[in-house]
Specification:
By secondary structure, the protein is an alpha+beta fold. It folds into two domains: 3-149, Spore Coat Polysaccharide Biosynthesis Protein SpsA, Chain A (Alpha-Beta Complex); 154-219. It has nine helices and six strands; from the N terminus they run H-E-E-H-H-E-E-H-E-H-H-E-H-H-H. The protein has helices spanning 3-13, 32-41, 45-48, 80-85, 99-102, 118-125, 147-151, 156-180, 182-219; strands at residues 18-19, 26-28, 51-59, 76-78, 94-98, 129-140. The two termini are 41 Å apart.
Amino acid sequence: MGKHIAWNRAVEIANGRLFIPADADDYFFPDTLNFFNRHWESFSISEQNKLSGINVLCFDNDSQNIIGSPFPRDGMQTDNLHLQYKYKIKGEKWGCIRTDLLKTRRFPIIKNTHYPEDYLWLHFAKRYQLICFNTALRRYYTTETGILQCLKKKTINGARVSLKYNKWFLKNFGFFLLVNSPVTIYHTLRCTISCMIIILKSWVIRKSISIRVIEKQVIQ
């Protein structure tokens, strides 16, 4: 089915102010909901309207070690585009997002694969900022069957998704990346070429099979 399809359905029926993603490989701490609500309510309505949500840190599988790097300062306001490609913040992050914004942006429906979540986060970064806290509220478990591991095993549908996403990514943020993270453009182009090769190989194999079937029918 794909997480992105389940996500679309969850967003469709959600009716709260803030949406909190919770995957099968997640555990978040008892004070999490109170933390998000308390900090969100500390902002006025006009301030909330300029924000997309709240970002926090994650612990790794079985220790108190933070995954990746912390935010430059506690309570900073920025967006996911600057976090990733200007400040070079690494590692898994988590948080809550305004439900009304998510309802305006759905994942494309492509079965049997996963769509990059940055399709949402970077889109919202065009107009909205978020608040970043150096508090870890989620334990991020990685398993052999987890989504991250599955994404490393590129399928034909996965290659098509990557091509579609990379085109959107470079079209919308290419200039920003050229200034702040040119290496990202290089890696994105490499990924694009790799996906094109996968799709081309699949096409050649299908054509070869079709030709053999036709030859067999002619012989008979």
